[in-house]
Amino acid sequence: MLRSLILSLALLSSAVFAGPKVTFETTLGTIVIELNQEQAPITVANFMRYVEDGSYVGSQFHRVIPGFMAQGGGFDESLNLLSTYEPIKNEAANGLTNDAATIAMARTSNPNSATRQFFINLVDNDFLNYNMQPPGYAVFGTVVEGFDVVQKMAQQPTGRSRGMADVPKTPIVITKATLAQ
């Protein structure tokens, strides 16, 4: 009896504390990402703004490196740079790590330059973590469904296009982005 009560409370608490989920439908399949508002509130709010305004739809995963990550959200299908909101503060010191199937913000060498581009880690990328290499890359969620789709991205042929390397030869496009709370 006590064991079933503890199990019920554990299930209830995980349901209560689960973050919002974003579903990306792509040309290779569907990916569901659970966001961690508690540990990355600024990053999650920023990401959700792009989901809610619809601007991830039609963007592509423009940089895919097997054994590393798949990056997207910043370019349309023709590799035109998409407009952004103001950059956000880097939350890489939030305790979340760049493990396989986590999503993190892409940025330039300026730690506080992340806008709309994100990447999904294909493997554990410890060298991107704050504790290994300050300022690090801010993780803000986890792929909870469809990691096989992300892995399939890494199997697609890539090349150079418009001055960028590791661009899928057939664009991998986000066709729909929805938020479910």
TrEMBL record:
Leading EC class: isomerase
GO MF annotations, alphabetized: peptidyl-prolyl cis-trans isomerase activity
Keyword terms, alphabetized: Isomerase, Rotamase, Signal
Entry protein name: Peptidyl-prolyl cis-trans isomerase
Source species: Vibrio agarilyticus
Catalysed reactions listed for this entry: [protein]-peptidylproline (omega=180) = [protein]-peptidylproline (omega=0)
Signal peptide (UniProt feature, chain positions): 1-18
Function recorded in the entry: PPIases accelerate the folding of proteins. It catalyzes the cis-trans isomerization of proline imidic peptide bonds in oligopeptides.
GO BP field: protein folding
The EC number(s) this enzyme carries: 5.2.1.8
Origin: domain of life: Bacteria
Family the entry assigns: Belongs to the cyclophilin-type PPIase family.
